[in-house]
Amino acid sequence: MDTNNFHLPVREMTVTLDDVACLLDIPVTGRLIEEEELDHDQGKKLLQDELCFTEAEARAEVKK
Prior knowledge:
Layout: E1 5-7, E2 12-14, H1 17-24, H2 40-51, H3 55-63
Antiparallel strand pairs: 1-2
């Protein structure tokens, strides 16, 4: 069972950060996460390990 879902009689509902920002009139600013800058080799490895890119696809994406 997901803890971020509400199970209502009509259907399931998920509350997002945007929903909360709109309801409470709170501005959402800044970066969601802080990440370090990666060099080309680290970027390729990340694409391959986490997103299942082939080596050729990762090389082409990093080259962009």
